[in-house]
Amino acid sequence: MATIHVDGQSYDVDGADNLLSACLSLGLDVPYFCWHPAMGSVGACRQCAVKQYKDADDTRGMLVMSCMTPAADDSRISISDAEAREFRASVIEWLMINHPHDCPVCEEGGHCHLQDMTVMTGHDRRRYRFRKRTHRNQELGPFIAHEMNRCITCYRCVRFYRDYAGGTDLGAFGANSNIYFGRHQDGVLESAFSGNLTEVCPTGVFTDKTHSERYTRKWDLQFAPSICHQCASGCNISPGERYGDIRRIENRYHGEVNRFFLCDRGRFGYGYVNRSDRPLRPEWRSDRNDTAVTLEVDAALGRGADLLRTSRRVIGIGSPRASLESNHQLRELVGEDNFSTGIAAQELACLTAMNALNRNCGLPTPTLRDVEDHDAVLVLGEDLIASAARAGLAVRQAVTARRTELAAERDIPSWNDEAVRTLGQDSYHPLYIAYPIATGLDDISAGSWTLAPADIARLGFAVAHAIDAEAPVVEDLDESTRREAETIAKRLLAARRPLVIGGGSLGSPVVIEAAGSVARALSRRTRQGSLLLVRGEANSTGLTMLGGESLEWALDELDGAHADAVVVLENDLYQRAPREQVDAVLERADAVIVLDHQRTATWQHADLGLPAAAFSEADGTLVSLEGRAQRFFQVFDPRYIRPETRIHESWRWLHALRADMLRQDTGEITFDAVTRACAEHYPELHDMLGSSPSADYRVRGLKLAREPHRYSGRTAMRAHLDVSEPRASQDVDSPFTFSMEGYNGFDRPREEVAFAWAPGWNSPQAWNKFTDEVGGHLSAGDPGVRLLHPCPGQYDYFVALPERFTPRDSAWQVVVLPRLFGGEETSSRATPIIERAAPVTLRLSVDDAQRLGCSDGDLLSVVTDSGRTNLPVQLDAVLPVGLVGIPAGVEPGLISGDWAELKAEATNHHQGQIMGQRDDETGGRP
Amino acid sequence: MFWNVIKGTVSQLRTLGMIFMHSFRKRETQNYPEDPVYLPPRYRGRIVLTRDPDGEERCVACNLCAVVCPVACISLQKGEQEDGRWYPEFFRINFSRCIYCGMCEEACPTSAIQLTPDFEMGEYRRQELVYEKQDLLIDGPGKDHDYHFYKVAGMAIAGKDKGRAQNEEPPIDVKTLLP
Fold first, then answer.
1. What does R_g of chain A's alpha carbons equal in angstroms?
2. Which cofactor does it need (chain A) (predicted)?
3. Contact call for residues B49 and B113 (beta carbons, < 8 A)
4. Which of A56, A112, A275, B74 is the most buried (most CB within 10 A)?
5. What is the number of structural domains in chain B?
């Protein structure tokens, strides 16, 4: 603690901070550019100058850069001093001499940090009469637009991209007036976190290209607090809607999860909710081969209820991409004994094992922020950048935090970024990775091994044994692996807080158990470590807690005629089971009811299709991989702009369907009621009630506003339909209004913040006003409730250790490898993600390829019991011999661990077919 | 009483006289619509969208008019032409809400939106007062004859490369070693 005096007022601040962040934490406005709460200070822009006085008698003082000055005890500074103000105004004037006079056609305008700072310092007239420097732009791929003229050379982009996110293909070129921030040549930005450049850049050099085509200013967007549905990390987002389409995903600050950054899949993968082929009204097919007719809601419910009433037994297939509430309502509709989670058996086994381990391995699950506070990491069977990218970014911070530790030994404050980095150079905390192919974190790892899943598990068990001798011995372990395991064990034990990461990416329960054994061994040696287990989809964790049978069980019940009707909830069965099997089952079932927000292959086979709300149109609760139940709020009412739509939340549809089926009065159902029922029904989920405020939450008697107070066009946006404006849509489910009426400020802390705005702060930097301290937690506490807690007890080690992996002569073991772009069901329907996704290839080790006599690009067919898939070969120098790597999301019939034959394919026709199918899927709005 | 009768009668007669004298005064009311109304050029009436001196749409869909509008009666959507210009995909003004305050004209950075001396907008049906872009767009530059936003702004469009806007150096060569 330190006391500083700012303009005559005394404040208590954290003495380890710099003056700038201390002042901002106090709520004082100091202009700045190059400083960023997550990246520290470099003193490059000179914008945050303040006057500092030596002591109480000093009246002259001197100008200092507040970001580079420690908030030492008894510091005396003045922000409002005339000389300091003049200096700051001059700095802005210098920065603006080359600025291109294009705010009206700039995608940053309206949430631009440079605009905010220019207004804050009072610069409003151009005095410089000479010419402006100009630059040529680069083509940086489908996500990021580049307009180099707007640059103010604050260096934030490269500091984020290279130093924070570990990217290599963006740099600063040239010097002084020739300076240029870009790639060495045009090309797609390779980093999985390039989207953050749009928020990190204080001006419009890097802007969101997916938003640009149908651009809307921030003040015109309708926001709601939401949760990213594109992986299990549970990042908090603020989707912005205008005219019935989601236009942009903004980062929503969460002090324990994503903080300032999102991955590109989460930020740019929203396009599927805007597709023009989305079902908007209930669709009915009297005969499966007929074209569908659209129905009104009541008619659809009537026919649906008839179908369900006349059937013997109804199976419900839930979905890990649907909310807990929707899954719960489905389970209520069909009954506990008829409910399937819609997750394939192998994955469900992994998920169950992970939930069990989180409870009984002895180590707690860290939050993503907590991940950054570990000093040794072991990753078993996960390529975090592909499966949970934001978690990967957190691991990178944990590993690079070695610099901060070195700096602390020499009394260099952690915020002094340049000094810390120069001192640290390439010193990292130990990170060990075992995965079949190279991963996105290999560049900072102390050791990485490319192994078959069974060998990854064996390495894990060997580490566990090396840590705790009571852990089972791995039989017939070769000497080098044993030595490596011992090294890993030694480093994990030497660490203050070791972190073990495992997960279900490889679909191998033994890999998960191996991670669990290491965690258990660490906890027995009483180490303050953590275990992070990566799940596949947004609500995988929650759905596992809710419980239910596997997808295979559901298909078997239907196939064996034990049931004749099926209700499928937001789940494309064709993505999870082999096509022939699903075809047969759906053909056999007498009644198929599908609820989805996408026109999936399953939808096309439905007797009755009910248009469900996507995450932007629905309320719901998800449980993230850290066991945090988080609520996402409806962003907009689709009927307001498009009155013909009949989209409703799945839980609402299912409730009405059940009431109709039982010939009860439908009644009005609210989200709060469903959540309460859900929490009461499942003891494990009981605490989810606290994850969001109820619909009657008010701030000073006001509901909360979804729209910024400057929201424009309310009396014109619908005027082409009808000049008389209807009443604004009412929201009975949440404390938010579909309007700018309501509270949107920062001075009365609340957990759920739809968008960050404070007077003078239009850019994402406004989040600093909503946190208890800069980069800390939200003032009212971070939203969400943790549901997975370790239960103390004596648990035994997993003993069924796997055999060593032995390649076979004529068969290859399939490993399905997650992909960041294209590997996920919904985001892979968004055009920018399709453009960004790498071509689908089959990975084969160089030796195997030689043996088969094939080379890069040749077509091979993978033959298993469930079918045959043709893919072009990509040689992989590090993939172990005997494995064949299949990208996720290509062929659900190929399951990790299966053995497949590889056969050379003479013709190219199938590849064309795959590509053609992809082209169809790009249809619709971006 | 008698005095009051005298006073009242005189007042009545005086009033009759005054009214009669009005027959010879100059007429104050205007014979609208037979006689057209003079409106000064800066009169704030019907809103138009103008074109730049080259005949291209001036509006760049920056949304400033919409946000400044106190009755929120302007709504538009940004689109992008082949040549890189921003333009409004649709531009809608609900004149049944417009209060003709002229704030949109003041806010417009490209002189695109202008108020004109025309108030003759009576309609029998309110719906007819919703004007779309084709109703708003005129063929000329309006009051501002010369301004051409893209000749000033640093954004490149087809036909105007980087470095060709007002007061601009040619684009830098990153690879040169010269100071």
1. 28
2. [4Fe-4S] cluster; [2Fe-2S] cluster
3. yes
4. B74
5. 1
Q: Do B74 and A180 touch (CB under 8 A)?
A: no
B135 min Cα distance to partner chain A (Å): 13
Asked whether residue B73 is marked as a ligand-binding residue, the answer is no
- pLDDT(B20) > 90: yes
- On whether residue B172 sits in a domain, the answer given is no
Which of B79, B126, B154 minimises the CB distance to A134?
B154
CB contact under 8 A, B155 and A149: yes
- Indicate whether this model's pTM tops 0.90: yes
Q: Do A100 and B154 touch (CB under 8 A)?
A: yes
State the pLDDT at residue A925: 40
Q: Inter-chain contact A178–B64, Cβ cutoff 8 Å?
A: no
Please answer whether residues A611 and A280 qualify as being in contact, where contact means their C-beta atoms are separated by less than 8 angstroms: yes
Cβ contact, residue pair B62, A133, below 8 Å: no
* In chain A, where the domains are located: 2-94, 362-541, 812-921
CATH hierarchy code of domain A362-541: 3.40.228
B171 interfaces chain A, CB cutoff of 8 Å: yes
* A614/A190 Cα distance (integer angstroms): 29
Q: How confident is the model at residue A608 (pLDDT cuts 50, 70, 90)?
A: very high
Sheet containing strand A591-596, strands side by side: A293-294, A283-284, A608-611, A591-596, A565-569, A314-317, A339-340
**Residue A466: its H or E element:** helix A453-467
Is B174 a member of any domain?
A: no
At residue A506 the predicted structure's pLDDT band, cuts being 50, 70 and 90, is: very high
Within a 10 A sphere around the Cβ of A574, how many other Cβ atoms? 18
Q: Which of A98, A99, A102, A203 to mutate to test the interface with B (most CBs of B within 10 A)?
A: A102
Q: What is the pLDDT of residue A880?
A: 93
- The secondary structure of residue A387, as a DSSP letter, is H
Q: Is the CB of A136 less than 8 angstroms away from the CB of B162?
A: yes
Cβ contacts of A818 within 8 Å, gap of 6 or more: A383, A386, A387, A505, A536, A888
Q: What is the pLDDT of residue A142?
A: 94
> For a pLDDT cut of 70, what percent of chain B falls above it?
99
Residues of chain B contacting residue A134, judged by C-beta atoms under 8 Å apart: 154, 162-163, 165, 168-172
Are residues B167 and A130, on separate chains, in Cβ contact within 8 Å? Answer: yes
Q: Is the dihedral of CA A403, A409, A412, A413 positive or negative?
A: positive
Residue to mutate among A247, A712, A724, A739, with most B CBs inside 10 A, is: A712
Confidence of residue A489 (pLDDT cuts 50, 70, 90): very high
Lookup result for tokens 């962040």:
A21
Kindly state whether residue B94 falls inside one of the protein's structural domains: yes
- For the segment A605-618, the average pLDDT, to the nearest whole number, is 94
User: What is the per-residue pLDDT across A59-107, written as a single tens digit (0 to 9) for each?
Assistant: 899 999 999 999 999 999 999 999 999 999 999 999 999 999 899 999 9
Is the CB of residue A872 less than 8 Å from the CB of residue A839? yes
What's residue A906's pLDDT?
Answer: 62
- From the options 3.10.20.740, 3.40.120.10, 1.10.490.10, 3.40.50.2300, give the CATH code of A2-94: 3.10.20.740
- Whether B18 contacts chain A with CB within 8 A: no
**What pLDDT score does A247 carry?**
95
Contact B154 A102 (CB under 8 A): yes
Asked if A131 and B167 come within 8 Å (Cβ–Cβ), the reply is yes
CATH code for the domain of B65? 3.30.70.3270
Q: Which residues of B touch A104 (CB under 8 A)?
A: 60, 62, 64, 86, 109-110, 149, 153
Q: Give the minimum alpha-carbon distance from B121 to chain A in angstroms, rounded to a whole number.
A: 16
Asked whether residue B105 is domain-assigned, the answer is yes
- Number of residue pairs across A and B with CB atoms under 8 Å? 142
**What does the mean pLDDT of chain A come to?**
92
Condensed to tens digits (0 to 9), the pLDDT of residues A243-286 reads 999 999 999 999 999 999 999 999 999 999 999 999 999 999 98
Count Cβ atoms below 10 Å from residue A263 Cβ, excluding itself. 29
By residue range, what is the domain housing residue B54?
A: 46-156
Residues of chain A with pLDDT > 70: what percent?
Answer: 98
